[in-house]
Amino acid sequence: MKEKLVNPNYNVNINGRRRNGSIWRWVLQLSTVVGIIALITLLLNIINGAFGYAVLEARVDPATLAVDGVPLEEQSKEQLMSVLQSNISSAAFKKLESDQPFAERSRANVYQLVIERIVKYDIKASWQLWDSLTRANEIKATAAQEYPSAQLRFISWFTSDFVSRPQSSEALTAGVRTAILGSLWTILFTILLAFPLGVGAAIYLEEYATDNSLNRLIQTNINNLAGVPSIVYGILGLAIFVRALEALTSGEIFGVVDPTTANGRTVLAAGLTLGLLVLPIIIINAQEAIRAVPQSLRKASYGLGATKWQTVWSHVLPNALSGILTGTILAISRAIGETAPLVVVGASTAISFDPSSPFSKFTTLPIQIYQWTSRPQDEFRALAAASILVLLVVLLSLNASAVLLRNRFSRKY
Amino acid sequence: METTKYLKSLLTPKGKKQESAVMAQSLQSQENTKYVLETKGLGIYYGDFQAVTSVNMPIKRHKITAIIGPSGCGKSTLLRAFNRMNELSPGTRIEGEVLFEGENLYDPTVDPVEVRYRIGMVFQKPNPFPKSVYENIAWGARIHGFKGNMDELVESCLLQAALWDEVKDKLKQSGLALSGGQQQRLCIARALAVQPEVILMDEPASALDPIATLKIEELMQELKKNYTIVIVTHNMQQAARASDYTAMMMLTDRQTRSGTVIEYDDTRVIFTNPKDKRTEDYVTGRFG
Amino acid sequence: MTIYKRAEDIMLRKTFENEIQQVKDDILLLGSMVEQAILNSVEAMKKRDIKASERIFEEDKQINKKRFEIENKLMVLIATQQPMAHDLRLLASSMEIISELERMGDYAKGIANINIRMGDTPLLKPLIDVPRMARIGVDMLHQALTAFVNEDVETAKSIPVKDDEVDALYNQVYRELMTFVIQDPKTIERANWLLWVAHNLERVADRVTNICERTIFIATGEMAEIKSTDDEFWHSQRQQK
Predict the structure, then answer these.
(1) Which domain holds residue B228?
(2) A97 membership: H or E segment, kind and range
């Protein structure tokens, strides 16, 4: 372009400004890249731990347990039960019966018990995925050398069986089904408590409450509660839901008491505790969503002679719904990952049967992960890695379904 | 009250009888009161601040009354006082009276909800609900217990708003998909759905292009046959073109920033030979 | 470039005001053209100067051209400036006034025309009253236009009175000419011509009255016919019959 007659007081410096802009752009891009790298590293680390070679040695050869020539894998439940009974102590058998009667157990469950208690595969050594892929031959040589009588198997810890098997103390047969179900049951009660209360409170605070000092105090408190450490909620839950409201949470009031628990350490208590924890999050997000509904919409509604409730129900809420659901997603994500308060409230770390009612004992995925990482053997770390992957999948699918719901409600209609 | 009985009969109308019901009610009211709306010594306060002082003006039946004046002199506040929309902002109160068919709107026994659906409002920026065109109009009727033929009502309202032809095959589409002018006419149709007697318009065309503006003005000329219209406008030429009566508002003085009506007259007089010099200065554009 | 120190200093509609001032100046110019034409036409008749009359005939074209020029400007102002109230009355009345001025120019042209048609024919009688009528008429016009430009209502109200003088002079001329005709019917043509000239000048004075009414309308918004004694005279004349 032709040169403009520039006033000497101005130093336009377009190139310099552009360079400056470029530098900033690279800086910002760098921060994004660092963040992405960190995430990918985390993910790869987890995947690394969830697959790999392992040397397995059976204490009792499964071939010797064949009944009438039928190998172990193909035996029926009764055959398996007889194998079990003949190979473990009667006291142990009776305990298994009392934990969960054999009549109710599935064949897979009994098979697992046989593997766990009798065959008892030992893992002598295990390697992670990267090693397994890059140093395969080396590993095979080592295994053949040091453990000649054992098998070398490539184990994917993260399989569909993993998800469907109940928990057990044997690494090979352990699964996270109990934990997943426990988590889902807990989240259910969390949402049942927190969603209506939270959204209701948000509607009241935004639409009905006047701006006086009491309401401002309430608002400040809610904002602060969102930042309270979760262990505090755990202690609160213990004191109130587990102890004081034991009659409710143990099911006594309803006459449905879990025979194994006779106390308040149940799914219901955990759900309620987490509900209190996420309540401030839901309230704050719902308030933001309601505030974001433009005032012109309300004015249009009032101008037609609608009452306040009609305006809220027909216009404010439907338009705030997507924001409210976002808040709920955040709440669910937070609640699923909570460990400390649930430990306090009394989640079991070693149960192997699924929760059957709100009043049963339970465990959750994060607790399961925590428990496995605290065991010394390598294979439990692999299990932990696999269950982290499961947790991520559960989280992602919950998020995805909530996002789908949100998109459905936030179409401009 | 006989007007309530009439209203109840309005809520269960049979199609086209709605229009005549409105007319019948207007005729009956005409025997009772001289003006549809009238303010007597009206003052409006936001907390301690007095926005409007001592306004005495009538709104005549089936006429278009325009309220003009420089910005910040309380035109919109005055307009909102006619259907008690001021009360949506906390801390507002009035002194004096606003009479609707002879009865004070601000009497403690009067429910603002009832006021608002008999005196409807159209706002400056078109604000249709994020629902379908059909629903926009039907919702208002529904919350007031409309039991008649909804399709007919929707069609009737859209016809009166000169929008029917443009949307008759798009009734289920979102109201927000229409153009600005169409949206504003949709808002007018929506206001008509609850059978108001008066329609208040707060700068209805200021956000629209000139053609859409002219369409709204023509629409107003037709609407005034069945309804009474009060319009606040910044656009003097619009007030001159479209209204029958004009009220000129101005601040009483710079310090208090409180507005009042300094002249009210036939539009033809205001724009050819106004009596107050301040009005003259304003309409000739010499007022700063 | 004008630098405004404060927003309050920005005079509103300065452009419009300037344009209005220009229009007023133009109307004054047109008025003086018409005044000149009237005086010249009578002078030319007095001196029997055919050439001068021919010039006046031509100059009328200038008057018409000027009138349409002003009219155009007025139309543009009305279309583009959205005049209201006083401004509207001013512009609308200006249209009227230039129309009146153009008619007055036509009267002057008519007088010049008569002078040309008369040719060598001598005047029936020396012109005494006719130039006096012209003088008064032109004075009235001048004052009326000044009052218009200054929106001087009082002056505008007082001018139409002078119309009575003009009417009286006209009656005098009429009677004199009638006397001539009765005495010698062959003078009827020449008498007619002179009567026509006097008639034109009497119409000029009437038109000035219209201008005064317009001026009052601009200032007050009231359109009222100023009663002239001439109407009363003819009214009483009819009654007598």
Answers:
(1) 2-283
(2) helix A90-99
Q: Which CATH class is domain A177-410?
A: mainly alpha
Residue B229: C-alpha distances to residues A296, B9, B117, B201, B261 (Å): 21, 23, 14, 7, 18
Q: pLDDT, tens digit, for every residue of A253-308?
A: 777 666 665 577 888 888 999 999 999 999 999 999 999 999 999 999 999 999 99
- Tell me if B114 and A310 make a contact (CB, 8 A cut-off): no
Gap between the Cα atoms of A198 and A191, Å rounded: 10
- Which of C197-222 are b and which e, b meaning 16 or more Cβ less than 10 Å from the residue's Cβ? bbbbbbbbbbbbbbbbbbbbbbbeee
Residues A161-204: tens digit of each pLDDT: 777 777 776 677 677 888 888 888 899 999 999 999 999 999 99
Of A210, A303, A310, the CB nearest to B143: A310
List of residues 6+ apart from A12 with CB closer than 8 A: A6
Asked if the structure places residue B288 within a domain, the reply is: no
Q: Could you tell me if A324 and A285 are in contact, meaning their C-beta atoms sit under 8 angstroms apart?
A: yes
Number of cross-chain residue pairs from B and C with Cβ atoms under 8 Å apart: 38
pLDDT at residue A232, rounded to an integer: 94
Q: What is the CATH number of the domain that holds C60?
A: 1.20.58.220
Residues of C in CB contact (< 8 Å) with B are 7-8, 10, 12-13, 16, 82-89, 221
For residue B88, give the CATH number of its domain.
Answer: 3.40.50.300
Do B and C make contact, counting contact as 3+ CB pairs within 8 angstroms?
Answer: yes
Per the CB < 8 A criterion, the answer to whether A158 and A50 are in contact is yes
* 3 state DSSP class of C126: coil
Highest mean pLDDT among A371-375, B14-18, B195-199: B195-199
**Are A312 and B151 spatial neighbours (Cβ–Cβ below 8 Å)?**
no
Instruction: Please report, for residues A270, A359, C67, C120, C173, the alpha-carbon distance to residue A244 in angstroms, rounded to integers and kept in the order given.
Output: 14, 15, 103, 137, 127
CB contact under 8 A, C85 and B284: yes
Which positions in chain B touch C84 (Cβ < 8 Å)?
236, 240, 271-272, 283-285
Residue where the block lists tokens 């034991």: A246
Whether ipTM > 0.90 holds is no
Tokens, residue A372: 């496995």
B93, β-bridge pairs: B45
Residues B287, C12: C-beta atoms closer than 8 Å: yes
Read off the pLDDT of each residue in A393-411 and give the average, rounded to a whole number.
Answer: 81
pTM comes to 0.79
Alpha helices (H) in chain C, listed in sequence order: 14-47, 50-81, 85-118, 129-150, 153-158, 162-183, 188-220, 229-240
